[in-house]
Fold:
Amino acid sequence: MSSAFDLDSRLGAFPSPWDNRHYRVPLATAKEITETPDEFNLLDWVKHPLNDQGNVGSCVGHDGDMVLSALYYRDDLVYDDFSAGWLYWRSRYWANIFNPDIEGSTNLGLMKALKKEGATTETCCPTDTVKPFTVDPCSEAYEIAENFHIESYHYVNKTPSDMKAAMYGLIEGFPEKTPLVSAYPVYASFKDAYDDGVVPMPKSGEYLRGGHSSALFGWKLIDGEPYWINVNSWGEDVGDNGLFYLPIDYPFYDVWLMKIGNPAPPQPQKSTICQILEALKKYFGCNGGES
Structure:
């Protein structure tokens, strides 16, 4: 691991505010819980090198990029390289975070951005990884984003059994296997995972360094104990080649399941002056000034 690695600059997730209007994944039944396997992973869906967000607290955007690209690959076996910088920028807008001196965002802001606007591509909007964060999307960014959005987002109950059942596609109404978007607190002991990726369970009273957002792609047994497979955005030189493993009972801020859907309906086009004049000519029976 590089000695220049700065954890605090990469922590940029706030707990999503609660709203009773959120769609929620139903609680897992006893039968569904017994049907989840001891180990399960979706890492075959990760088709690009793990992101490195640099020293910007843009983890929410990188989490969304990783999960959305996996979902589109699942459905059509085509890898789409989405812009994590765009998703971070738009998530801040929908999370009502406008102060440039405050870094970070919420996963709820990410969900709203993906549903209302969609994701543009990395080619259109290259992701900035140094401070101060800037975004410079191409002129077609919103048009491209209309083709890559989510149909709905659903809050997942933060218990291991419910998260496993949702990820494994067992819950009624949610039949597809899917990675999950998550946010969680990062404590001082997280540094112990820099070399092998195995995160210790935080102790009572331990120093809280900040919040982080990263994708869950399954679970595995390590020395007989279950851990979440956490695809991170700190590059491949940290953890287990960029992967971290969170204890199955780790205290999450929030967990989300996304459903991708059809492209967003096209936005209404504004009429130009010429179009208005042409319409008036047709209405009044004009034909180029001839009587």
Notes: The longest helix spans residues 59-76. The domain at 8-284 is CATH 3.90.70.10 (Cathepsin B; Chain A).
